[in-house]
Fold this protein.
Amino acid sequence: MKQTHAMSYIKGLIAKICEVLCGLLTRQHKAVFGCYKNKFADNSKYLFLHWQLNGFMRAIWISADNQVLEQLNAKGYEAYHRWSLPGIYHSLTAKFYFYSSYVGDINRYTHGGAIKTNLWHGSPLKKIEFDIDQGPLYEVYHSQQPMQKWLKSVKYYQEYIKPDVMLCPSEQVQSLFTSAFKLTKSETLLCSNPRSDFYACYPHRQTDLSKLFNGSYQKVILYAPTWRDSGLTATQTNVSPYDAGFNWQALSAQLQRNNQLLLIRFHPNEAHLAKGLQSIANIIDISERDDVYDVLKQIDLLITDSSSLFIDVLPNNTPFRFYCFDNEQTATQGVSSQRSHYDYAQSLPLISDSDNRWRLTNFKQLQVCLDSDFTALSWQEKQDYERLKRWFWDKQEKPSFNTLEQWITETTSAKTTMVNRTYNTVR
């Protein structure tokens, strides 16, 4: 066994021991927050900001990025380094954990006994977690023997931590999350997401695109592909797969002719691949920004491949296109090295492989799309768009902030009542 694998097992065993010991601690009515890659982004960010504004609960941000912490502290927010004494103390004593991926967004060694809410960072097209059936992540979640399962729960400790609750914007998404995270329906809340609700509650906090980029454009287009599951980090490769799908200079010339602006938002694991595009006219790299939700309602077109960001623009009625320039290459390789898609993706309009109206497979098709009036939808496209929206977003869904606050109040009250009953019985 390689040393790196041995270290993963050692860290996992330590985390399991810490989980048991931390479960013995008394936790206080406060919440700690964290996000993947130590960023200040996604659902956890917007719930944190909301509670800073309405004072529902003491909210504390945990990160290992000193720049993020300095920025939050400068705004008067409470934020601590993960391994500082205050950071460890609050992670050990907070009753509530809110994170966007895994408990390690906060601290993998201190969560025992806390009530954990996984706010997750997307509604999937690609299979996630325990639903993954192929690709490099398959071996993380699947075992043939009980002993193998236990060993993997040690080696991949965070991936096997079950949250106490997750948010689901529709019953369909609920069915995906209960399967992927091995939850029951009672461990989910049917409501919208904080990242979708925040700017509806606080519209004045949106970023004005014209001021941000110091210019005016006829149309603003966002290109936000998903991570290709290469398993490579920024330090391991500088070869961009996107060079195969784009003629960047030709695209720039077309954008200038059409007075269009293209914003590029690569996945955090591939953000470094956009650095070479920074000097190209009418193309702006925003991969290093926290997220895109402060400008999402101002986008005229979203281009992605299988990123769930297209689900987030559905309530805004923003058109989108799937640009899948590497599908042909994947098909010639036999078994895909990427995760497969959920079956539902083959039956819904506009996103299924058989529905090619909004699916682009080569650069020429992309150019035709950008030259067209992509904001003008046909009657059938409008009907299909509404059907798609209803699948991911329940019309009767409750706002996330109100739902979470009600759930926390009821959970806290129930636990207090239980403690009082136990105390009276002992007496």
The CA atoms of residues 80 and 86 lie 7 Å apart. The longest helix spans residues 400-426. The first strand starts at residue 28 and ends at 34. The radius of gyration is 23 Å.
